[in-house]
Amino acid sequence: MNYLVPSILSADFCELGTQLDIIGKSSVEHLHVDIMDGMFVPSISFGMPVLECVRKRTDLFLDVHMMVERPERYVDEFMRLGADGITIHVEACDCIYKTLEHIRSLGGKRGIAINPETPIEHAFPYVEHVDMVLVMTVHPGFGGQSYIPECYDKIRSIRSEINKRGLPVDVEIDGGVRLENLKRNLDVGANMIVTGSAVFKGDIENNIKVFLSRMKQEA
Ligand code: DX5
Ligand code: ZN
After folding, report:
1. How far apart, in whole angstroms, are the C-alpha atoms of residue 162 and residue 170?
2. What is the pTM of this model?
3. What residues contact 17, with CB distance under 8 A and at least 6 apart?
4. pLDDT tens, per residue, the chain with 219 residues
5. Considering every ligand atom, which ligand is closest to the CA of 199?
6. CA 177 – ligand 1 centroid, Å
7. For ligand 1, is residue 43 a contact (CB within 6 Å)?
8. How far is residue 184 from each of residues 37, 191, 218, measured CA to CA in Å?
9. How close is the Cα of 88 to the center of ligand 1, in Å?
10. How many Cβ atoms are within 10 Å of 51's Cβ, its own excluded?
């Protein structure tokens, strides 16, 4: 199953509630929530109070992407505030198995993310222990960047590893996704499509409609 996952990093934060309502009326089921600590990535995004407000405003699945050093420090708090899934970076955590198990024990979906420069094989040991692998298709930290084409091979490779093992694991991509490269990403095996600027810039309702209809055509 393919899903469109809008990333609120590109939202207008003065209008966040209204923009969440627009997404809530569409047939989108997930919302991507980017947490940045200014250490793992150069930028700082937002944290607990914003997650808490978003949770109060929407029933959408909150897919929390932790671009944070030692994310294990925050799992309890983010789950308490309403995350439905937490994704940690393979590059950021020294106790990955334990942290994934902790997320699961709190009822969350577990994700492992991998940066563009990290070989995809570094995610292989975790595929039996996650619900999703997130392949970063830009260098994490900012919205609106250009897709890194070397990532197509990484997506193909993780999808084939997951299929080989017969696992029900999603492959999410994040960064630089536009209508123009959507089909190629679906073709190589991505099924959770994070989009920030491509959804939030301009007419959100219409952007979502166009993306969803393209995704349906490609299914
Ligand atoms: C980047 C974030 C992305 C970002 C994607 O570090 O993880 O989720 O919002 O934005 P676009 O789709 O504009 O590249
Ligand atoms: Zn993200």
Report:
1. 9
2. 0.98
3. 53, 57
4. 999 999 999 999 999 999 999 999 999 999 999 999 999 999 999 999 999 999 999 999 999 999 999 999 999 999 999 999 999 999 999 999 999 999 999 999 999 999 999 999 999 999 999 999 999 999 999 999 999 999 999 999 999 999 999 999 999 999 999 999 999 999 999 999 999 999 999 999 999 999 999 999 887
5. 1
6. 9
7. no
8. 32, 11, 10
9. 15
10. 21
Token pair of 31, please?
Answer: 């919302």
Whether 175 lines ligand 1, by a CB cut-off of 6 Å, is yes
Among 103, 137, 99, residue whose Cα is nearest residue 118: 137
Q: Are 184 and 151 in contact (CB under 8 A)?
A: no
Task: Find the helix packing angle between 204-218 and 179-187, rounded to 10°.
Answer: 30
Could you tell me if the CB of 9 is within 6 A of ligand 1?
yes
